């Protein structure tokens, strides 16, 4: 089992669209038993997969070991893909972790889930918080969306600096340029500085996810955007295998 966290300290960088499409690729293209865990209080991944956030505080119970995580898992309409939906307790999770004082509690939950899933995708909340440190310790790979702008790249640098300053032992970080418009000079300049980073373009097929409430592979499987996510997933699988 491998855990892939989709995380950024900055909001509005397309984190959820990446998490949902990677989860679909894992389940559908690689036929992996896949769990998407929506850790963001906004519940966007939960919404995009056709569910509503749970009216409970199951997340706190899971980390306190009062609730079996499998009790909160829900199936989706996609074969091989389950979701642990967002819930009302997520808004308090950071203070909960701080009070709990257990730096590897998320990693312990991952160990509980490992026997039932091949891949777990974490859609993480933005911010430099106790949650991000838990995720850094639990994940095998951190996918970090970066809009090609100075502020977004600064946010990535802040994450790396925070982990170094607090001496958090973290998974490798894979920066991914997202919402790229190659007609913009600023975007072209950013891409030329980091030609090795994967690139996800701005695309109407991706924007349609909020209306379709599905991953791109379900309604636009032959689109260039779908191929971009498939290529990104294949690269992630190679990294995990290596």
Percentage of β-strand residues: 15-25%
User: What gyration radius follows from the Cα positions, in whole Å?
Assistant: 17 Å
What is the count of helical runs?
13
Q: What is the CATH domain class? A: Alpha Beta
Structural class label: alpha/beta
Oligomer: single chain
N-to-C SSE string, H for helix and E for strand: EHEHHHEEHHEHEHEHEHHHH
Outline type: globular
Uncertain regions spanning at least 5 consecutive residues: none
At the fourth CATH level, what is the homologous superfamily?
Answer: P-loop containing nucleotide triphosphate hydrolases
Q: Order of strands across the biggest sheet?
A: 3-4-2-5-1-6-7-8
* Overall residue-averaged pLDDT value: 91
> What's the CATH topology name?
Rossmann fold
Describe this structure in words.
The chain has a single domain (2-241), classed as Rossmann fold, CATH 3.40.50.300. Helix 1 (15-29) packs across helix 13 (224-241), helix 3 packs parallel to helix 5 (93-100) and helix 6 crosses helix 7. The two termini are 14 Å apart. Strands 3-4-2-5-1-6-7-8 form an 8-stranded mixed beta sheet, with helices on both faces. Helix content is 46%, strand content 16%. Strand 7 (173-180), helix 9 (185-193) and strand 8 (199-201) form a beta-alpha-beta unit. It has 242 residues and is α/β, with parallel strands linked by helices. It is globular, with a radius of gyration of 17 Å.
